[in-house]
Amino acid sequence: MEAITDQLTVQFTLGAGLMLGANGERGLGLIISGRVLAGLGVGGCSNMVPIYISELSPPAVRGRLVGIYEMGWQIGGLVGFWINYGLSETMAPSHRQWLIPFAVQLIPGGCLLIGAIWLPESPRWRFANGQNDRALKDLCWIRNLPGDHPYILEEVEAINAQVEWTRIHVGAGFWKPFSALRQRQNQWRFFLGGMLFFWQNGSGINAINYYSPTVFKSLGVTGPNTGFLTTGCFGVVKVGPSSYIWLPVTNVR
């Protein structure tokens, strides 16, 4: 899992680099290809990173840490909106003006890429694949505790119990977990989760995110930079509900 996250981060960084190199007649092609490449990388990371966090996190703060990831996602979008507004206010329209937002992408992407050098593989994954010694070593490093500490012993026992239960009741292989969909209650849960993603994207929120200045202009919001200002305010409103949902999660023990 850690290796896949590294590959996706490299992919996103390469995509951002292509967009940054857009200029002249090849500019549009580089922007499109870079956007596709970066989008695939970000999409993959948005799936893998929460799973990776949940597997590394202690149960008592697992919801909090995954919630912090979601908050970081939303705040990053908010910062992007206001960067565009700030550039529109302080710089004249030029090649450099729209190049800076592309360059800013490399800051978080580069930090993640550099930090990934020290990221260990998920101990849970190593236990499930028979790499017990390495899994114990990585778990002790993550928890900053010795291998004979009661907390480590208890967590290892819980992980092994879960791995054994999965081996007996689910089995090995990529498609085995999907056998749980034969149960009626799991079908309903799967349906609800799938519909949440479907209607979230089907509502058109992504179109508003990417084309919000144009959308607000069509609604009668006028002025040279008012569209970017309204977009920034939209980002603030968008982060609000996420904070409201995230705060109760942080209190879970």
Please provide a written account of the structure.
- The chain has helices at residues 2-20, 27-56, 62-90, 95-104, 106-115, 123-128, 132-143, 150-169, 184-202, 205-218, 226-250.
- By secondary structure, the chain is mostly helical.
- Helix 1 runs antiparallel to helix 2 and helix 3 (62-90) packs antiparallel against helix 11 (226-250).
Oligomeric status: single chain
The average pLDDT value, as a whole number, equals 80
- H/E topology pattern: HHHHHHHHHHH
Helix content: over 70%
Number of helices: 11
Structural class by secondary-structure content: mainly alpha
Uncertain spans, ≥5 residues at pLDDT below 50? 248-253
Distance between the termini: 26 Å
The major pleated sheet works out as: none
Extended strand count? 0
Approximately how much beta-strand content do the residues carry? under 5%
The gyration radius over C-alpha positions equals 22 Å
Q: Any idea what the shape is? A: elongated
Please supply descriptive tags for the structure shown above.
mainly alpha, 11 helices
Question: Could you give a short description of this structure?
Answer:
The chain is mostly helical. It is 77% helix and 0% strand. The chain has 11 helices and no strands.
Protein topology:
Elements: H1 2-20, H2 27-56, H3 62-90, H4 95-104, H5 106-115, H6 123-128, H7 132-143, H8 150-169, H9 184-202, H10 205-218, H11 226-250
Helix pairs in contact: 1-2, 1-4, 1-5, 2-3, 3-11, 10-11
